[in-house]
Amino acid sequence: MERIIECVPNFSEGRDMTVIKQITDQIESVEGVKLLDVDPGKATNRTVVTFVGEPEMVVEAALLAVKKAAGIIDMLKHTGEHPRFGAMDVCPLVPVAGITMEETVVYARKLAERIGEEVRIPVYCYEQAAYTTERQNLATVRSGEYEGLKVKLADPHWKPDFGPAVFVPGTGAVAVGARNFLVACNINLNTTSTRRANAIAFDVRERGRVKREGNPLTGKIVKDETGKPVMIPGTLKAVKAIGWFIEEYGVAQISMNLINISVTPVHIAFDEVCRKAEARGIRVTGSELVGLVPLGAMLDAGRYFLRKQKRSTGVPDRELIRIAVKSMGLDELGPFKPEERIIEYKLREGRGKALANLSLERFMEVTASESPAPGGGSVSAYMGAMGAALATMVANLSSHKRGWDDRWEEFSGWAEKGKAVQEKLLQLVDEDTRAFNLILAAFGLPKQTVDEMKARDAAIEKATIRAIEIPFEVMRTAYQGYAVAEAMVSVGNPNSITDAAVGALALHAGIEGAWLNVNINASDVGKHPAVIKILHEGADLAGRSARMKDRIVKQVHRKIGIHFGVA
After folding, report:
1. How far apart are CA 546 and CA 554, in angstroms?
2. Which of 176, 194, 211, 260 is the most buried (most CB within 10 A)?
3. Residue 359: per-residue pLDDT
């Protein structure tokens, strides 16, 4: 899976867009980084920039951005309503896909260290990247703001985590952090009453509502021993919410910030609002997402609503997204376009079309062209993916077969396993072609001097080993598909067992084809230890694949023979 993190730096300039353009130009200069949004504010004199990409590239882009900001934003002249203490004021990194928070913290601290060393300004780490509990809260780290920074830096207790403990007047300081992904969503109600919308918001938000004596609306506020109001917590953790009326749509909404979707996902928040609204005689009619959302959040929502229907969740991502959109009414106020609203899909813009995303006809045409790639390796991965897809199809058919309603979870589980094999093999379709292109690039390196020859030979060997590893991974991944195919022949819908058998044949074809690629690519590097290991394991895997394929096909032959009364 592709690793993606989001970076949301805030710059202390929101009025002169020529300054911001210089900064965003630096961000866009880094290959593999996608600029998603630039949101300036005149009153705050602050601009929030959002970009995403592979972790290493995001760190590089953020570093270039802070360097440029340090050179063109003068904090001595800055005024604005928003708290701030530096030119690039804050820079949070957010895990989006294929990466954990712990890994994101490592990248945040790496970025902080590089800013301190290369830009020579004070850097504080906050939220999940903080080194101490006291510094987790951004408001605490930024207390005193720019005007109090000189005194703060003179206090040993506030020595920065990286960079010099020296006041840099023109630049100030920067806070670098790691935080969870925040999703903003609005849930539409069939009422115009802001008061009723607020009541529902207070029911669900983590902070809840003020506790009162007697009448919950007009009673005296209950206070604790320090004089602060006692709160009755709401039902959803890591959620902020308020009710408001939207003139444009003529309805009230619950406006929600889900500050940690791993604690309270979008679909759980939506369903809880539905329950609380119904208890107050109000209906939820739909919802809208503000900004972008990770693919995982939409897939989780689709699976959640399918499980409520007792339907298989091992269906294509496109179907999971469609179910999520319809279930939460995300298209009530306007069309929900996945390619524009989902971060991973947005990131693909301008990259060119992957082989795995081509139509079947176009993939065939590209394969049949004069180009040597895609070749047997990519086709082997694709055959394996089709084999896994057939086994998955039988699982999905079995999950809603009439009379088998109590077994839907069993077959849904098999469909999920088959889908995972499909998705991995589809990634390997393109990985195989990329590996081939690396070999071509290595052979194209200069070879005029001894050093150049050594570098070229090393690059060729490295690329060749990669071209062996990929088809071997195809073999290992495709083999996992047999478990689904065999199970569907044994316990799946009897009307579709031949589909599962064809799936097994396609899996074996993919494995055999990949094994041929392993061998031909190993011809010049067969003595490398890593290659020797792959050849040994690959031979064993190819043999096991042949036996597994034969076992599944013979089982189908026996079942068909019994069915038709053939001895």
Report:
1. 12
2. 176
3. 86
Host H or E run for residue 50: strand 46-53
Domain 183-347 has CATH 3.40.50.620: no
Give the three-class secondary structure for 93.
strand
Given a cut of 50, whether residue 94 has pLDDT beyond it is yes
Indicate the helix (H) or strand (E) that contains 367.
helix 360-368
- List 82, 317, 331, 528, catalytic entry: 82
Residue with tokens 């689709």: 302
Residue boundaries of the structural domains of the chain: 4-178, 183-347, 355-563
- Tens of pLDDT along 109-135? 999 999 999 999 999 999 999 999 999
Assigned architecture for domain 4-178: 2-Layer Sandwich (3.30)
Rounded alpha-carbon distances, angstroms, from residue 40 to 10, 47, 72, 257:
10, 4, 16, 20
Catalytic annotation, pick one of 161, 203, 300, 432: 432
Tokens of residue 275, six digits: 């329950």
Judge if pTM exceeds 0.85: no
Whether residue 123 contacts residue 161, with contact meaning beta carbons closer than 8 Å, is answered with yes
536 is an active site residue: no
559, burial (CB in 10 Å: exposed 0-12, middle 13-18, buried 19+)? middle
Does residue 416 have a pLDDT over 90? yes
**Which class would CATH give 355-563?**
mainly alpha
Per-residue pLDDT at 62 exceeds 60: yes
**Stretch 243-267: mean pLDDT, rounded?**
91
Alpha carbon distance 390, 507 (integer Å):
10
Alpha-carbon dihedral of residues 556, 558, 559, 564, nearest 10 degrees? Answer: 120
